[in-house]
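Usage

Read records sequentially. Each one opens with the input sequence:
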Amino acid sequence: MTQPFATVALTAENIADCVDLYQGVFNAPPWNDGWEHAAVQERLAAFMAFPTARGLALQVEGAPVAMVLGWKERWVNGWTFHIKEMCVAGSMQRQGAGAALMQALEDVLRAEGVVSLNLQTLEEAPAFGFYEALGYRKGRVVMLGKLL
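and closes with the structure output:
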């Protein structure tokens, strides 16, 4: 990545700074989700209210260009971290920002004693290849859902 950036810990107090980033990424292809500003604010705030939430953002000139957040859960063999959201601004993709952010997250979590990470993404999405390149592999657990 050629642009200078700062890594900032996300908190309940500063998570709102990432709303425009999140909305811009997930309302664009390939996701085309249709997020409204208030719904993104609510979603991100709810995630950061979780007791073991952790998040990081990359900033360029004080503005977030990438973010990752989730929470820790105690499991049989130690703490695992569930990545709930990760995104990189379109203008910063394929420049190393995402890989740098994920490495920073792993460093923080490793220092906290986390032994594994997991996430969900669509197999046909470009993000799938990104995560595979970082060493993530398909697991045996299958996600099930039900509409109410």
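Summary fields computed downstream for this record:
- The chain has a mean pLDDT of 94.
- Residues 6-133 form a domain with the Aminopeptidase fold (CATH 3.40.630.30).
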